[in-house]
Amino acid sequence: MSSRPLRVGVVGVGMMGADHAERLANRTANATLVAVADPDLDRVQQLAARYADVAAYADPIELIRDERVDAVLIASPGFVHTEQLLACIDVGKYTLCEKPLTMDAASALQIVEAERATGRRLIQVGFMRRFDPEYAALKQLLDGGELGRLLLLHNVHRNKDVPDSFLSEMIVRDSLVHEVDVCRWLFGEEIDEITVYSPAATSRAAAGVVDPQIAVFRMAGGGMATTEVFVKCAVGYEVRCEATAELGNATVGLGSGVFVRSNNRWGGQVPDDFRVRFGAAYDDEVQSWVDSTRRGEVTGPTSWDGYAATVVCEAGVESLSSGAPVKVTLS
Ligand code: ISE
Asked: Residue 174 Cα, ligand 1 centroid: separation in angstroms?
């Protein structure tokens, strides 16, 4: 393990990239933010100026190749991940890549194979729910055997609102993708088949957008999972998972925050977005990535997990269009 802090460069300075830059600069032990990159030069220079000794690049590939950068956190849009991941693999740098790994199965497999050719695990994918304290406790409970064999998972994934440009296919590839990883992780199995149903849409959905959607996964071992994904739910950010096993069941995401009684009413708060609900998960995910990278390991979701999720989502988009179940075929 290196004795000095890990020097991290962040690629992409949109909402997530800026959030991770702040996390690395202020709340991550044994790491320093040394560079940020984004084609929007004004934006990246403004972000760099918030921190001491942080270089600003317009070209992400320049950051990736900069010898002052030990490791890379990719938070750019998914459609540019392939080129950036290949550049990271080419220079042998550990990389935490926000989901999705890439936008399609072929390019995701290209990343898996390019990494494999180096003989080293370098890529971790940003499925941060695995680092959420509640989901991690659920995984530990299920793996511990107290509830017996896992039979079913029931997921709810609601966003308060999204831009009208967030189309039906994005709901699968950018939102449901989290449940794809959660179900693979909790069952410890691949997803064999996906069916995505189109209920009557909310009147708040943009024209032609299927929102909410219901997805059903059939797991390799015969278990099943249902997911309601609803991105204009109007309430707030609600993410829940109920696990039904042979000897019991368990639920995470019930929003057990402060229970308030006032003015003849009782209730609590529903978070506004994922940065609030999963703030601790992102902190733990990045801290764990820095610590494992300094040990020369990848201990979180791998490029294979990113590839498998991309293939399942590709099948999900096909099912959304046809309404029929679609078999998932992994290479
Ligand atoms: C967003 O990209 C995320 O990753 C959030 O976790 C998810 O809830 C949201 O739907 C996505 O758009």
From this structure: 6
Query: Is 131 within 8 Å of 288 (Cβ atoms)?
Result: yes
Ligand 1 contact via 178 beta carbon (within 6 Å): yes
Asked whether residue 12 is assigned to any structural domain, the reply reads yes
| Residue whose CA is at the smallest distance from ligand 1 atom 7 | 175
142 and 58, same domain (yes or no)? no
Cβ(195) – ligand 1 distance below 6 Å: no
With CA atoms as reference, report the closest residue to 155 among 237, 216, 201. 216
Please indicate whether residue 159, judged by its CB atom, sits closer than 6 Å to ligand 1.
yes
Span 152-170, mean pLDDT?
97
Whether residue 227 has its Cβ less than 6 Å from ligand 1: no
* Mutual angle of helices 105-118 and 81-90, in 10-degree steps: 10
Is the pTM here over 0.85, yes or no?
Answer: yes
Smallest Cα–Cα separation from 122: which of 283, 303, 295, 294? 303
**Closest ligand 1 atom, residue 162 Cα:** 12
The pLDDT of residue 2 is: 64
CATH number for the domain including 226? 3.30.360.10
Structural domain of 21: 6-128+281-301
Please tell me whether residues 32 and 144 are part of one structural domain.
no
